[in-house]
TrEMBL record:
The lineage of its organism: Eukaryota, Fungi, Dikarya, Ascomycota, Pezizomycotina. InterPro entries: AB_hydrolase_1, AB_hydrolase_3, AB_hydrolase_fold, GDXG_lipolytic_enzyme. It comes from the Eukaryota. This is Alpha/beta hydrolase fold-1. The keyword Nucleotide-binding does not apply. It holds the Pfam family Abhydrolase_3. Residues 65-189 form the Alpha/beta hydrolase fold-3 domain. One of its GO terms (biological process) is monocarboxylic acid biosynthetic process. SUPFAM superfamilies: alpha/beta-Hydrolases. It comes from Penicillium roqueforti (strain FM164).
Amino acid sequence: MATDPYLHLVEIFSKFDTADKYEPFQVINTSYKSFNQGRSHINVDILIPRAILSQQELSKCAVMIRIHGGFLVTGSSRYPVWFANWTLDYAISTGAIIVAPDYRLLPEVSGKDILKDMDDFWHWIHSPKFAATIKDAGYGHIVPDLDKLIVVGESAGGYLAIQLALSYPSEIRAVIAAYPVLDLKSKFYTEAYPKTILGVPNMPNEIIEEHIAAMRTAPLPTVATAADPPDRLKLAFSIFQNGRLLEFLGSEDYLFPMKRVENLAAAGGLKLPPTFIFHGKQDSAVQFEGSQRFFDLVREKAPDAIVKLHGLDADHGFDFATTLETDWLKDGLEIITGAWLGSTTVD
């Protein structure tokens, strides 16, 4: 009897060894935003390498913002299967604090709401509340250095990382976007046709319709701010496979990185921090061509920008077991580390 492709994918996720993933870190969980008259909150995790804590001396630490993926529909700040090991190792090797926010998810909210969450998170991390949270947890000797700030995101998180970079280019030292969703107006996101994602054939539209019906009949407005797959994964696949992303995301220009690049360039205000994008050329969830088009557009509109695109033969999420010694990643990080920390080596 043939195995159901979706169940097979879920089984693969369940087999990842993630038991000790965050053991090298002290994790502080707090919230950066409340809504629904203060009844609901959006969480953020602060991961401090234990190697720094053990020093017991005043440490000014660089900051890595890491934004999770999940089609803008699922995922969470610390869902271990999608938190690439190299990201954690990079923070440890550079002595950086990781700050990983959640955000409200489609389709309960729009893209406008998600970007508002990211903006509110940005202001929170630049407010006294961020450092105070670390101090109140008993780590007053750890001082976040917001002059050395990098943004890292994968998939939908890569989309949000690029959006932050376009909004705050002078305050972000560098960006790493792993297989980011960038060309959202392409037919892959706007048209329904057979799209096998990670081995899973098209999910039916009924999954979306049933979810929306449940939202409408709920006694209180429902909002999701985090979900660990397989929760909401079928819904995410169905939205992408049936070309309905923009139906829930919205149509305003600022939702689309490609359009923002064009508009900023036309207004003479296009800036982008040093950026490293990597993407599998056989990506079945987020097409590689979107990263290529974004890269080409930036090179055209801002020829002095430092932007590196690395494409390789792989599908979505291929970097889970990648290490800092992997040649293509090591090469890309040399540029990024120099821009972020003012050096070109990783310890």
